[in-house]
Amino acid sequence: MPGKRFKVGIVGLQPGRSWAARAHIPALNALSETFEIVGVANSSLASAEKAAGATGLPRAFASVAELIAAPEIDIVTVTVKVPPHLGIVKAAIGAGKHVYCEWPLGNGLAEAEELAALARSKGVLGVVGTQARVAPEIEYLGHLIADGFVGEVLSTTLVARGGGWGGSISEKKIYAYLLDRANGATMLTIPVGHTLAALREVLGDVAEVSAVLATRRPTALAVDTGETLPVSAPDQVLVSGVLASGAPLSIHYRGGAARDDDGLVWEINGTEGDFLISGPSGHTQMVQLSLKGARNGEKVFRPLEVPASYRSGWPEDVEPGNVARVYARMARDLREGTRSAPSFEDAVAVHRIIAAIERAAESGSRTALARPGPAKDRQRRA
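User: That's the sequence. What structure does it adopt?
Assistant: Structure tokens below.
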């Protein structure tokens, strides 16, 4: 497929506020020599027409089924809420389309495994939007670890704020579904899941976990309506475990916004030194991260500047920049048969960790993962 422009249809676009509008459209526009956005499908033709008109897209499809069936579309991008992922992605794969699905891939491990198996059987490429894996700071961190900056990794500890699940939501219509654990879009599955994908990228698989999941705020205020809504999603996620390397792991996510933009503190301790990764929230997939390190006799952390080569040629804003990096890897995989983009198989590996955390929390005992995640081609951009 050298030189081919891949034609993309987007499912789920709300101008000015949705993830597709903020990240996917600017990312694809920045890669216009590689991708072309054909059009959009929403819950109704009127909604799709409004979105297409506001964003300058050439076509509004009457339904998701019509978009999937369009012969000109190569890639279906799925950016809707989690519960419809299974049906939409199955239909797209069944039509022979490649898929870029936002994370979480499915509402739980079983759905993710089903979609990964279906993509394999149909020979289509399934890519999942765990874009923190390709953030410049995470890519550079992975290279530094591989190069022995801190020696052998001894342990890692991460404390972060979830940015939501803090006792209130601004708009009931948009955010209330995040409060119900059954919808599969919780602090554990979204910010913790994205961060687990990044952690797994640089430190390897998780072998076993113990966990506590607590809902300390059983209600939340919908600010726009004044209603008090029930909450079943956890606002406290505590995980202790062991990586496949033998290094101990500790994670604590807390619901709500951070004070003083101090929303992520991630330490990696090694035989020769330490790393400190920080950010304004625990949503590592969508915030600017900073990287510091110290080794040997150094008494204080020093900033580790990410080389310009990791950033040049990409959108400057974090959200579209990271999404563009995933799309670029997807195009390379389609053209060259590589496996560099976060795949459905990688998504299953993260879903498997989350499922183990849930089992450990329910049982109160240490839980081993069912089997290790797949090996990854770590083909990073130099």
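The longest helix spans residues 344-363.
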